[in-house]
UniProtKB/TrEMBL annotation:
Pfam families: MIP (PF00230), PA (PF02225), Peptidase_A22B (PF04258). Its main location: membrane. Residues 92-170 form the PA domain. The keyword Disulfide bond does not apply. This is PA domain-containing protein. Belongs to the peptidase A22B family. Belongs to the MIP/aquaporin (TC 1.A.8) family. PIP (TC 1.A.8.11) subfamily. PROSITE patterns: MIP (PS00221). It comes from Arachis hypogaea.
Length: 876
C-alpha cells in the first residue's frame, strides 16, 4: 500500500509518543552541578535550593526559596539546627562598599548589580554579617559563581539569591515591622518517596484494566464466531458492527514513520514552549478528556441502563448518539472544565490523573498491536526515540529537549498536562513525580496483545504470556525509578529499561514454548473459519480509522481510580453470583415498600444504613449488598428526607464546632479557654448527639468519608451515597457561612475561620498520614458499632452505637489537632475552606479529601474482608 494510507495512523501514534516524557521531578533539583562553571578552591559548592523562613515581630510569616552560591559556607540541612537571625537592609543597597549601618551578626539583604557576587559577600563578611541575601533583578533565580580570574576567595558566610518578588516582600516587612528575622536551611530530598510507589501502581493497574477490557471485547467477538460455527450458519459475521472492529491495527510502515513525526512534534513544542502554547495543549487535553470521560461512563453504566444505551437520537455532525451518552455528557464537560480552571491548585493533579488514565485506557482499546513483529518494531523505534531526545539531544541543543518539554521550562506554567503526576508527600521541597503517557501506552499495547492472545488460545494465567508481560513491565518501571534516584533525580528514559524487559520476556517465552512463529506473524491462534480475523481486519481498520480521524477526541476515556473500581466491581460480581434472583411479582412488591422506620432502606432483607442498623430479630442473618444503582429510591420520600437530615446535621455540626474553635483561638491564653480538650469534646459531643438523633432517618453519617466507606461495603447504593455527600457538603458550607455572619469578616479571617491546614513543623506527608489513620479509627468504629451480627447478639448495641462513635471522634481530635486541626471529614474541611477562602486553606485541601477517603476504604476492606470475611460467606 502507499505510504499516504498509513500517514494518519503514524501521525496518531506519533502524537501518542509525543505525550510521553522521562519520569522526573517537576520542581527543580535541589542539588545541581554545572560543568560550565568549573570549581576552584573556595568556589566548589554545589548549587542547592535554600528555604528562607521569615519571622515578623516573633511570629512566623512567609517562606521563600532561594539558591545557594558556588562560594561561601554550606547551609545547614535541618531546620532545628538553623538559627533565627535578625534581617537588615544594606546601606548602600548594592553592598559594593562597606555598609553604613551597624551589623552585629545579622543577615544582610542587598540588591544585585554594580559589582561581583563575591565582592558583595566579602564586604558583608567584613562588616560582621552572618549571611547575605542577594535580591535578583528578575523573577527567576540565578546561579552565583566566581569570576574566572579570582583567586582569593576566603568567604566564610553563606550567600543566597532570592527572586525579585521575594525581595519586594522582605523589604515591605522591614518597613512595616519592628523586627524581622530569618532562618536559612536547605533540607535534603529523601532518596525514595511514596509518590513513586503510587505512580508505579497507577501505571500497572491502568495497563491491567485496559488489557482486560480489550481482551474481553475480543473474546466477545470470538464467542459470537464460535456460536455461528456451532449453529452451522453460512452467514458471514459483520465485523464492522462488532466491538472488535472499532480498533486501529498498527502496521510496520506506521510504526517506523511515527518516529519522524513524533520528533517533529516534540521539536515544535520545544521551540514554541510558552504560556499560550500550554493553554492550547490544555484545551486539547480537555476536549479529549470530555469525550473519553463520556465513553467510559457510558460503557460502565450501560450494564445497568441497557435500554438507554441502545436507544439513539440523531444529532447533526455527531450522528447517532444514545440517550445514556446525552445524560452523561454534562458531567463530563463539567469535570474537564473544573479541572482546567483549578489545575494550578494543589489538588489539580487528581483531575489530571483521572483524565490521563482515561486517555491511556481508551487508546489501548482503539490502537492494537496485531502481532509481535509490529510490536517489536514499534517499541524499538520508541526505544531509539527515547534515547536520542533524552540524552543525545543535549549534545546538539545544550539541554535535553525531552526533559525541558516535560518540565515546561520557560513557560511559566506547571507543565504540559499529558502526563501522570503525584505529589512528593515526604519531600520537604514538594513538587511532583511524573511519568509520561507513552511510558504506559507503548508497552501497554504489547501487554494487552499478550492477554488477547492468551484468551483466544485458551491459555490459563500461568501458561500464558500476559502474567509474565505485566510482571516484566512492572519490573522495568521499577528499575527506571531506581536509576532515577541513582542519577540524583535527573530525568531517565523509561523505555530504555522497560522495552528490553517486556520484549525480551515475550520473545524468550515464545521461542521456548514453540509459539514464536504464530506470535510473530499472525498474533492469534489458527481458527477453523476464515470468515473473521479478530485481531486485524483490514475493512474494520479503515472504517474505524475514519471515525478516529473525524473525531479527534475519541482517544480519551474516564476511569474511576483503579482501586475503587476493582473493589466495587468485585463486590458487584459477588452479589450477582450469590444473591438469588427474585420473582417479578416479589420484586415489584418490594419496590413498593417504604421502610419508614430506618428511612434509608426499601429492601426488607437489608439492614439499615450506618448507625441506623438495628435488627428486630434476635437471629443473625447476613444482609444482601445494596445494588450499585437503585433508581426507585428517587421516587421515595424517605430518600429525600434522609438527605435533608444529613444537611441539617452537618449544618449544626459545623456551626457549633467552628464557633468553638474560633472561641479558643480568640482567647488570650490557654487558661482562659477550653483549649484543645474542649475542641475535641465539642466535635465528639456533637457527633454523639447528631448521630443519635438522625440514625433512624438517614443512618447518621454526617461525613462523606463514612458514607464512602459504607458504600464500598455495599451498605448503600451509589445513588444514595452521592446524594448524601452533596447534602453534607452543602450543609457544611451553610454552617460555616452562618458562623462568618455572626463573627464578622474581620474576626472570621483573623482566626482563620476554623479551616484545616497542615501546621508548621509538619510535612504534607505527616498531615496525610494523620488523616488516613484518624479516619480509619472513625470508620472502623462505625462498622463495629453498627455490625448487624453484634446487633442480633446484644440488644443494647443499637442504642449505644453513637457513644463509641462520638468518643472515637473525641480521641482522634485530641491526637491530630496539633498536626492538621483534624479533618477526617471532607465536608467539614471543604465548608470551612470555601467560606474562609484563602490560599493557605486551599493549598492542603486535597489532603483532607484523599486522606479520609483512603482511611475509609482501608477500614471498609479491613472490617468486611478481614474481620467479617463477607466475600467468603455464602448467602441463603
Amino acid at each position: 500500500m502507499a505510504v499516504e494510507k498509513f500517514l494518519p495512523v503514524a501521525a496518531f501514534l506519533a502524537l501518542i509518543l509525543l505525550l510521553r516524557h522521562a519520569p522526573s521531578v517537576i520542581a527543580g533539583d535541589i542539588v545541581h552541578d554545572d560543568d560550565s562553571t568549573p570549581k576552584k578552591p573556595g568556589c566548589e559548592n554545589q548549587f542547592v535550593l535554600v528555604k528562607v523562613q521569615t519571622w515578623v515581630n516573633d511570629k512566623e510569616d512567609d517562606e521563600f526559596v532561594g539558591v545557594g552560591a558556588r562560594f561561601g559556607t554550606t547551609i545547614v540541612s535541618k531546620e532545628k539546627n538553623a538559627k533565627h537571625t535578625r534581617l537588615i537592609l544594606s546601606d548602600p543597597r548594592d553592598c559594593c562598599n562597606p555598609p553604613k549601618n551597624k551589623i552585629a551578626g545579622d543577615v544582610i539583604m542587598v540588591d544585585r548589580g554594580n559589582c561581583t557576587f563575591t565582592k558583595k559577600a566579602k564586604t558583608a563578611q567584613t562588616a560582621n554579617a552572618s549571611a547575605i541575601l542577594i535580591i535578583n533583578n528578575q523573577k527567576e533565580l540565578y546561579k552565583m559563581v566566581c569570576e574566572p580570574d579570582e583567586t582569593d576567595l576566603n568567604i566564610h558566610i553563606p550567600a543566597v539569591m532570592l527572586p525579585r518578588d521575594a525581595g519586594a516582600r522582605l523589604e515591605e516587612m522591614l518597613t512595616s515591622a519592628s523586627s524581622v528575622s530569618v532562618q536559612l536551611y536547605s533540607p535534603r530530598r529523601p532518596a525514595v518517596d511514596v509518590a513513586e510507589v503510587f505512580l508505579w501502581l497507577l501505571a500497572v493497574l491502568t495497563i491491567l484494566c485496559a488489557s482486560y477490557w480489550s481482551a474481553w471485547r475480543v473474546r466477545e467477538a470470538a464467542d459470537e464466531h464460535n456460536k455461528l460455527l456451532k449453529d452451522a450458519s453460512d452467514e458471514v459475521p459483520d465485523t464492522i458492527n462488532t466491538g472488535v472492529s472499532r480498533v486501529v491495527n498498527m502496521n510496520m510502515k506506521a510504526a517506523v514513520l511515527f518516529v519522524v513525526l513524533a520528533s517533529c512534534f516534540l521539536f515544535m513544542i520545544y521551540k514554541l514552549m510558552s504560556p499560550w502554547f500550554i493553554d492550547i495543549l490544555v484545551v486539547l487535553f480537555c476536549i479529549g478528556g470530555i469525550e473519553g470521560l463520556q465513553t467510559c461512563l457510558v460503557a460502565l453504566l450501560s450494564r445497568w441502563f441497557k435500554h438507554a444505551a441502545k436507544t439513539y437520537i440523531k444529532i447533526p455532525f455527531f450522528g447517532a448518539i444514545s440517550y445514556l451518552t446525552l445524560a452523561v455528557s454534562p458531567f463530563c464537560i463539567t469535570f474537564a472544565v473544573l479541572w482546567a480552571v483549578y489545575r494550578t491548585h494543589s489538588f489539580g493533579w487528581i483531575g489530571q490523573d483521572i483524565l490521563g488514565i482515561a486517555l491511556i485506557i481508551t487508546v489501548l482499546q482503539i490502537v492494537h498491536v496485531p502481532n509481535l513483529k509490529v510490536g517489536t518494531v514499534l517499541l524499538s523505534c520508541a526505544f531509539i526515540y527515547d534515547l536520542f531526545w533524552v540524552f543525545v539531544s543535549a549534545k546538539f541543543f545544550q539541554q535535553s529537549v525531552m526533559i525541558v518539554v516535560a518540565r515546561a521550562d520557560g513557560s511559566g506554567e506547571d507543565g504540559i498536562p499529558m502526563l501522570l503526576k503525584f505529589p512528593r508527600i515526604f519531600d520537604p521541597w514538594g513538587g511532583y513525580s511524573i511519568i509520561g503517557f507513552g511510558d504506559i501506552l507503548l508497552p501497554g499495547m504489547l501487554v494487552a496483545f499478550s492477554l488477547r492472545y492468551d484468551w483466544l488460545a485458551n491459555k490459563n494465567i500461568r501458561n500464558g504470556y500476559f502474567l509474565w508481560a505485566i510482571f516484566a513491565y512492572g519490573f522495568g518501571l521499577l528499575v527506571t525509578y531506581v536509576a532515577l534516584n541513582l542519577m540524583d533525580g535527573h530525568g531517565q528514559p523509561a523505555l530504555l529499561y522497560i522495552v528490553p524487559f517486556t520484549l525480551g520476556t515475550l520473545l524468550t517465552l515464545g521461542r521456548k514454548r514453540g509459539d514464536l512463529q504464530v506470535l510473530w506473524t499472525r498474533g492469534e491462534p489458527e481458527r477453523p473459519c476464515p470468515h473473521i480475523r479478530l485481531q486485524h481486519s483490514g475493512e474494520g481498520e479503515n472504517v474505524m480509522f475514519d471515525q478516529v480521524t473525524r473525531k479527534v477526541s475519541c482517544f480519551a476515556l474516564f476511569s474511576v481510580p483503579c482501586s475503587v473500581f476493582l473493589f466495587g466491581i468485585r463486590w458487584r460480581i459477588i452479589a450477582t453470583l450469590n444473591v438469588p434472583r427474585l420473582s417479578l411479582a416479589k420484586k415489584r412488591k418490594m419496590e413498593r415498600e417504604e421502610d419508614v422506620k430506618v428511612g434509608a432502606n426499601k429492601f426488607s432483607e437489608r439492614h439499615a444504613l450506618g448507625t441506623g442498623a438495628q435488627s428486630e430479630k434476635p437471629e443473625y442473618k447476613e444482609a444482601p449488598p445494596a445494588p450499585l444503582f437503585e433508581p426507585g429510591e428517587l421516587k421515595s420520600w424517605s430518600f429525600y428526607r434522609a438527605g435533608i437530615a444529613e444537611f441539617v446535621a452537618t449544618f449544626l455540626f459545623l456551626y457549633i464546632t467552628i464557633l468553638t474553635v474560633m472561641g479558643v483561638n480568640r482567647s488570650p491564653s490557654k487558661c482562659s479557654s477550653v483549649g484543645i480538650q474542649g475542641i475535641a469534646w465539642s466535635f465528639g459531643g456533637m457527633i454523639f448527639a447528631l448521630v443519635y438523633c438522625t440514625a433512624g432517618i438517614s443512618g447518621g453519617h454526617i461525613n462523606p468519608a463514612v458514607t464512602f466507606g459504607l458504600f464500598l461495603a455495599r451498605k448503600l447504593s451509589l445513588t444514595r451515597a452521592v446524594f448524601y455527600m452533596v447534602m453534607q457538603c452543602l450543609g457544611a458550607i451553610c454552617g460555616a457561612g452562618v458562623v462568618k455572619g455572626f463573627e464578622g469578616n474581620a474576626r472570621f479571617e483573623m482566626y482563620k475561620g476554623g479551616a484545616n491546614m497542615v501546621n508548621h513543623g509538619y510535612s504534607k506527608g505527616d498531615g496525610l498520614g494523620a488523616e488516613i489513620v484518624g479516619t480509619f479509627v472513625l470508620v472502623y468504629t462505625v462498622f463495629s458499632a453498627t455490625d448487624a451480627k453484634r446487633n442480633a447478639r446484644d440488644s443494647h448495641v443499637p442504642i449505644l452505637a453513637p457513644l463509641p462513635i462520638g468518643f472515637a471522634v473525641f480521641l482522634v481530635h485530641l491526637a491530630t489537632i496539633p498536626i492538621t486541626g483534624t479533618g477526617i471529614n471532607p465536608a467539614r474541611s471543604l465548608g470551612a475552606a470555601i467560606i474562609f477562602n484563602r490560599d493557605h486553606a486551599w493549598n492542603d485541601q486535597w489532603i483532607f479529601w484523599v486522606g479520609p477517603f483512603v482511611g475509609a476504604a482501608i477500614a471498609a476492606v479491613y472490617h468486611q474482608i478481614v474481620i467479617r470475611a463477607i466475600p467468603f460467606k455464602s448467602r441463603p
